[in-house]
Amino acid sequence: MSDITNQSLNQIIKRIKTKEISSTELTKAYIKNIESAKKLNAFVTTTFDHALDKAKQFDNKPNFDQLLPGIPLAVKDLFCTENFKTTAGSNILNNFIPSYESTVTKNLWDNGSFLLGKLNCDEFAMGSSNETSYFGNVINPVGDQLVPGGSSGGSSSALAADLTPATIGTDTGGSIRQPASFTGTVGLKPTYGLCSRWGIVAFASSLDQAGPMTKDITDCAIMLEAMSGFDEKDSTSINKKKENYSKNLKDNIKGLKIGIPKEYRVDNMPKEIDELWEKGKKILKDLGAELIDISLPHTKYALPTYYIVAPAEASSNLARYDGVRYGYRSEKGKDLIEMYENTRSEGFGDEVKRRILIGTYVLSSGYYDAYYLKAQKVRQLIKKDFDDSFTKVDAILTPSTPSSAFKIGEKTNDPVSMYLNDIFTVPTNLAGLPALSLPAGLDKQGLPLGLQLIGKALDEQKILNIGYAFEKNCGFKNEIKKWWS
Amino acid sequence: MVVMKSEKFDYFINGDKGKYEVIIGLEVHAQVLSNSKLFSGSPTKFGAEPNEHVSLIDSAFPGMLPVINEECVKQAVRTGLGLNAKINNYSVFDRKNYFYADLPQGYQISQYKNPIVGEGKVLLDMPYGSKEVGIERLHLEQDAGKSIHDMDPSNTYVDLNRSGIALMEIVSKPDLRSPDEVNAYIKKLRTIMRYLGTCDGNMQEGSLRADVNVSVRKVGDKEFGTRCEIKNVNSIKFMQMAIEYEASRQVELLENGKEIDQETRLFDTKKNETRSMRSKEDAHDYRYFPDPDLLPLKLDQKLVDDLKKSLPELPDKKKERFVKDYGLNAYEANVLVSEKEISDYYEEVAKLSDKKLAATWMMGDLFAMLNDKGLNISNSPISAKDFAELVQAIKSGEISGRIAKEVFEIMIESGDNPKKIIETKGLKQQSDPKELEKMINEILATNKDKVDQYKSGKEKLFGFFVGQVMKSSGGKANPQLTNEILKKLLKG
Lengths: 485, 492
Description:
- The complex is a heterodimer of chains A (485) and B (492).
- Chain A has 485 residues and is of the alpha/beta class.
- In chain A, helix 5 packs parallel to helix 6 (177-183) and helix 9 (302-317) crosses helix 12 (369-389).
- Chain A has helices at 9-17, 23-35, 48-60, 103-110, 153-160, 177-183, 217-227, 271-286, 302-317, 336-347, 350-363, 369-389, 415-420, 426-431, 460-474; strands spanning 43-46, 72-76, 114-119, 167-170, 186-189, 210-214, 257-261, 290-294, 395-399, 435-442, 448-455.
- By secondary structure, chain B is an alpha+beta fold.
- In chain B, 39% of the residues lie in helices and 20% in strands.
- Chain B has helices at 70-82, 179-196, 236-255, 301-309, 315-326, 330-337, 340-352, 355-373, 384-395, 401-414, 418-425, 433-446, 448-455, 462-473, 479-491; strands spanning 12-15, 18-31, 90-91, 94-97, 107-110, 120-126, 129-142, 146-148, 157-159, 166-172, 208-218, 228-233, 263-268, 273-279, 289-290, 297-298.
- The two termini of chain B are 44 Å apart.
- Chain A binds chain B through residues 80, 86, 88, 93, 96, 98-100, 102, 197-202, 204-206, 232-236, 312-313, 315-316, 318-320, 322, 324-326, 336, 340, 360, 363-365, 368, 372, and chain B through 56, 59-68, 95, 97, 99-101, 104-107, 156, 158, 285, 287-289, 291-295.
């Protein structure tokens, strides 16, 4: 039998359903892969015993009607998992074992899957290269010197290296889509409010959204269907009927109008990205879609706006990590204030501290109006740009990132250049819109590049359909040699 | 107790350089009466073991999110309506960021720029007449936990039972001018909220606390002086003491040509003085911003209208009705509406007996007895029905006022109803004119000398005859009838 683990989730599900393979065999195959892939540093915690237990339970009493029957899944270590350590990639939570399960992971388990392990990520999801994790950087299976993207770098790496059949990440400014793009995989950031935030370690509450990371569009539809849904425990959750994304997947996109925003052609963008974009346009056009030039005039303000809003919320969200009730507490300090100072100095890494400082600054009295309030106004304008465009088009096509995966250490001393990596992804977080990154080609070094499809709010089905048609006609194949094992 | 309505306002501080008036504004923190906390399902009951009523949300575990408790919102709206205030159909929850061990989130969820309730007003009955106090706003916020410093010599313990409980912060305009007005204001707020059932007003349990803003200015000045805020005072008495101390301190500074620093002060109840806690420069920068975990609170006008329709009769209205329908004077009405339970008791008594006489007897003997025994009206040993019976017995002339006091005492001791007591003890008033006339004739016959003296002009002796009648009737002779008959017979 060929290696089951390099197949897509939907193929694996078929084999489980036809009893070609048992859940236990499947789980063992992934455990074997994971054990031989320690070099990648994709996992913070593995839960093999739990996974094998669950697999056995499934095999004893299989329910093939579920969306994810007997499927082991590793998830980003930002999702709280009951009785399993949840670190958010931070020293300050390195001993934290939740007594509760995040809604999104619970939804996955309720659909027949179970936890295989917790995946490395940038500390509190702050980063674009997975280099800010307390547990060390993650390596991109595409090349041993390359970052896997971030913040869901453990997720993208594990997925591309066949260490999990599919996974989930969170995306605050591109943390699903950029790593997907860097590893030649599919990543979807759903509409804000489609997936519950309850039980996900918060970074920036108004931007955070969990989403699937998969090998193909069909898998993406299955995972989204399994993880999404209204949750009364999250006040920002959208109360709507659940959709059958996988069942409704269609590859006919004839007549759909695809917007091409001129503002996404940025200075110094590698020629290859531009060529990739052209290729994408051609594929869609050949499939019968109509390309329409549009303008999103406030795009250039998105990154600065994001780097005000996200740190502002983060500075407040991370105040709870004070050493008083859970997590890391410094033993040093003679009073409460010193305990706080030492706990937070020792518990947080540099990037987190940088963002807490920025966030504290922009919310300070005297600066609030100039920064935070203004950013909120610009955010509305960015949203309005999209609203206006979506009166004319069904979806928008852009590159996912301005470059392919960069080298480890290349940008660690230059935060601004690191932040610029999110330039194409942050506008949709600010606008709350769904966006899909799909693998579209390779650059001349052979590194994967992605294109991004942005949809109207709650129009996931449409961008999945476009992605589905694109995927069938793009001819992209992720050829990753397992150099690490 | 007699209150002279003609009394004039007279709370000023006299200095060498002039006469000062005291300007006071209050920020009252009233705990919302609700079964669960503002953003979590934890119970709010007082008196639990430490950290017994704490959920993952209250203790700010990673990934926990607040969900607004609708009942708390309704309670705030009801209170706003009770304060004749504008209800804001759009309000926003903000985060007030600061670090403290008993503030698990590292921020308090409060309302900053867009409170749920806007301007309103409260009427106070002062000896010098009615006084209106403006309400600036009312907003909802979370309470913090409690740090316990005295359980261990080197550690501080934290109890999060209060963490996340809903508070209403009611901010008055700087309209108060004396400790008495503060007393009346707090009591009035408390009464209104207790009528509404939105806050139990229990100051001992911390359900009602206040920050007191005090400044002074020379009488006639238009500008306010620099104010100091006295934090977290938890009894009316302490508020009054703190104000008196603080106002004198400020006047003294001004008299000595010094400036008042705008600062936050603490009231030391042992030393009876206020002490600087932090200056304006050291004031926290709370970095307020809208809580992204919560959507703006949008109230349906229908909900507000429905709540308005379902409000109980409030003290001001009830007082008006007591004056108009029951013929009480303003003072009586005021006292009888001061607690909803008192007014309920009164109304029950008034339904079954003479309304005016019921008021007099309630405010006299009943209140004195409750006060004596440390009871309140809800656990009065005398039911409203029995009390009404007693009042009616007086009114009908069945017993005299003097006998009534005797009956009242027996009612407390035995729990019997007045009818039974009057009958078994034979306390019924003698009101049969024929019998009384017969008795009086006998008395006059045995005191012929006194009758002669009376007739020859010594009219003072009338009292002597009344006394004899009372003595011989065991106090049961109807006094009015006795007088009439005596006069008639002595004339003859």
